[in-house]
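User: Could you walk me through two proteins back to back? I'd like the raw sequence and the structure tokens for each, with a short line separating them so I can tell where one ends and the next begins.

Assistant: Of course. Protein one, sequence then structure:
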Amino acid sequence: MADRTSLIPLSKTEIAVGKSTHRSIYDRHGKLLLASGSTIETQTQLNNLFEQGYVQKNEWDELMVKNKASPPKIIEEPEPPPPKDTTSQMDDVRWYVGEALHMQALNETDTRFMVKLIGYIKGKSVLVTAPVVDGKHILIRDNQSFVVRAFQGKKAFAFTVTALKSVFSPYPYLHLSYPKHVISSVIRHDARASVKIIASLAFKNPDRAGAATLVDLSLGGTSGILKAAVAEKKEAGTISFKINVVGNEGLLTIDFIVRSVAPADDGDGYRYGFEFQNVTPQNKLILSAFVHQTIADQI
């Protein structure tokens, strides 16, 4: 049993897999976890020690504390600023007939439709197909307000309109007000959407499975928080999760490779980084629509 008052958190630079420990490692109550000279066998063991481990303070630790009071100045290259949103007019954008538009009722985040652009009359109105839900055209109230979003390549567009009139003859379509301006933003290919999605993980060994809370999602991969360390780097498996795109819920099952494992920021569990593999064209299309829609919602 070690003196608790002399214990300090274990440094991540002090131990590594396959290396022997130079100091005994204790838990926060002073109970011995690993004796000095022991070898770290696995990444899981290493992660557990990082989460729970403490060592007894020595003279070197005291010196490091003093040096931290006046750290040397380090000149770092500033990161490039994120691309700024730009404002333009409706007719400055190269729209095309049949382009998919995502409509979201203001103050009703669950009310979303996908319609297609028929055309527009400058300064007058924008014409779109009538929204369809479960195979049926729905009635849009006059003067109801919407945010309309669209995606072209690496750009997302958004503008606010009100419904002017629903027309049902000779075919259903909708007149929207002409927007005062259109906001556009560049969406990078590797942009990650902040999410909170429950996912299930499966590996070749059926006894090794788990549940993760996904915290971000991109076209190339995702990060998730797990309660326990269930896999190590470079292990392969499949991940399954549900996402909602324009009111339609779909289940995605995608192959992955574990690229990173680290203790969670709050110390509760582990943060895993998964790289997607062999994504089918259909899943890629659904994933792309969801990621772009989620990011565009923040414009």
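----
Protein two, same layout:
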Amino acid sequence: MSLPPVLEPGRTYEGAIWAGDDLQDVDAEDSTFVDCTLSGLTISRGLWARTSWHGRGLTGVRILGGSFARSRWRDVRFDGSALAGCELYGARLQGVRLLGVMLDSVNLRGATLEDVTLEDCVLRDVDLGGAKLTRVRFAGCRIERLDVTKATLTRVDLRGTQVGIARGVDRLGGAILDIAQVLDLAPAFAAHLGIDVRYP
């Protein structure tokens, strides 16, 4: 089996596979990944800013820290992976699918998400401040302490998901909710509107 290519900044990789190893403190800034596969490995820290990803995806990958600022992801699939403490501010995700993914303390401020699907994912302390979400679907997810301050939502389907908003409840215009979710969020809506809700 041939060894995976060495990751360097400003390179183009096509159809490459990285599997079962650890990538620590890699500098791959400005690189392009076309139909590449990452499987069963851990990415620790590193510089991945302005990388472009097209096709294929990540399976069983753990990403711990690292700067993916202003990266671009198109038609990429994340399967059974985990992202923790990652910087993805200003990133653009189009046609991306996340299946059984954990996002913990991920910075997506100012990001653009379009035609993105998240299924059976857990989002904890994810920052979507100032982000733009269009046709994003959350199915069977659990969301804890989400920050959507100054975010713009258009046709964002949250039905069937446990939703916990830490900041930005006023930005939920454009979201699709079921009645149970509206009732769960009612105290937050009331607090935002300055309504003093008291028991009889």
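The mean pLDDT is 94.

Let me know if you want the two compared in more detail.
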